[in-house]
Amino acid sequence: xxxxxxxxxxxxxxxxxxxxxxxxxxxxxxxxxxxxxxxxxxxxxxxxxxxxxxxxxxxxxxxxxxxxxxxxxxxxxxxxxxxxxxxxxxxxxxxxxxxxxxxxxxxxxxxxxxxxxxxxxxxxxxxxxxxxxxxxxxxxxxxxxxxxxxxxxxxxxxxxxxxxxxxxxxxxxxxxxxxxxxxxxxxxxxxxxxxxxxxxxxxxxxxxxxxxxxxxxxxxxxxxxxxxxxxxxxxxxxxxxxxxxxxxxxxxxxxxxxxxxxxxxxxxxxxxx
Amino acid sequence: xxxxxxxxxxxxxxxxxxxxxxxxxxxxxxxxxxxxxxxxxxxxxxxxxxxxxxxxxxxxxxxxxxxxxxxxxxxxxxxxxxxxxxxxxxxxxxxxxxxxxxxxxxxxxxxxxxxxxxxxxxxxxxxxxxxxxxxxxxxxxxxxxxxxxxxxxxxxxxxxxxxxxxxxxxxxxxxxxxxxxxxxxxxxxxxxxxxxxxxxxxxxxxxxxxxxxxxxxxxxxxxxxxxxxxxxxxxxxxxxxxxxxxxxxxxxxxxxxxxxxxxxxxxxxxxxx
Lengths: 273, 273
Fold this sequence. Notes:
The structure is a homodimer of 273-residue chains. Chain A is α+β, with helices and mostly antiparallel strands and 273 residues long. Chain A is built from seven helices and 13 strands. Chain A folds into three domains: 29-58, no CATH class; 66-136, FAD/NAD(P)-binding domain (3-Layer(bba) Sandwich); 150-272, 3-Layer(bba) Sandwich (FAD/NAD(P)-binding domain). Chain A has helices at residues 7-19, 66-70, 122-136, 166-172, 224-232, 237-240, 257-272, and strands spanning 30-36, 39-45, 48-51, 81-82, 88-91, 94-100, 106-109, 116-117, 150-154, 157-163, 176-184, 195-203, 209-216. Chain A is globular and about 60 Å long.
């Protein structure tokens, strides 16, 4: 399964989850589930059995494209249904008149890598549904693609990402540098200031932002939207250092963590030559 | 004094502050302060006197440019010292070799209106000081200007703005439309979801974002950075509807309030023709 964040950021999430008193076991091959009295009792792994009251299987998501196949539509390389910008299904000889698709079943374009991807998130499904609906109704709307933004929360731990991870950037063919900074959600002296870590990935030489990841507490994760919009607009990390972001002590240090990360990334690009 | 937000958004702030049990009296001309036993006792206004333990005067900020005047540098139309992009002071015949200025004393450029402005905020002062320092040290850095981002907090009420207000847009010569939406900081069903209002100002016909204002509670104000970066990159509100912003129920409705505002603004631009 594709990792959502890089291993160094994942290690921070791992550590924080362990700090909540949760045992995390990775690479533990599950061989079976033992049941008794009509419910699960133990999970059997290669390293031994673990008692269990509930088992949640997070196995990823695959698009259900049987309907498309029945219509003679070949699925894309990601297993999703290919569409054009207006969400018209694309068949062997181009967009098919009167045939539309939107949501978790479709393949879309990653605007940073330029590659087709399958990203089954509710926010994309909503946008695609709206675009398809407008076009079906005779209007005009387009869904240009995605840049891989996602956010989640484990108790008070916030994790967010946008763009490409290191592995994804590598697989897409980019040469890149990374910069990781630790800062705070508010001015350091302000009550409730919480630590956050931001990692940026920028293209070597050009300094174009390729991706960002955030691990922090309250008020951390939504800063990913700032990175997402910078990325969407093909900003370089050097340009980003001048951004006029909001500052007041309850909301950020005088240099917002996003700007501190951009500065470090810009310096890294510069020194990498 | 220039209003920081439009009257309709200011009314929401007014109402929220009154809700905190604070009496707000605007347009109350202060005629004098009465003292007794070595401290202030009453504020005398045209409408009568008010008892007072502490008086805080918020009178705005004017740049102290005496040093520049002593050097024969004429101040700009805003009263601030004009500089070039590298923070070199600009005299009557161009940038002056070896003379630099940064911080609350300088005049800068508003990147939306194109007009010179004086915006004495710590975040600009920090950036300008860094740019001046890098250039003085033989490096290269520029401060392109500002877009009018600001944020503040009154108890748990958050207020933020970026770009131009309606009055500023009008004064700059723009024809524009506005769109105001009410949404929530999290999915409506998620604990702690708080109401927030976002207002966007977009150029008529082109739909270019010109400004945004937010009034809300926790997790509201920092969304102004998303608007600030969209504005910085000259996005239209229509383009903004496709932005890949982060979604999970603890962080936003499935359409982030920023996207809902962009949709309404785009529809408004469209219908205004």
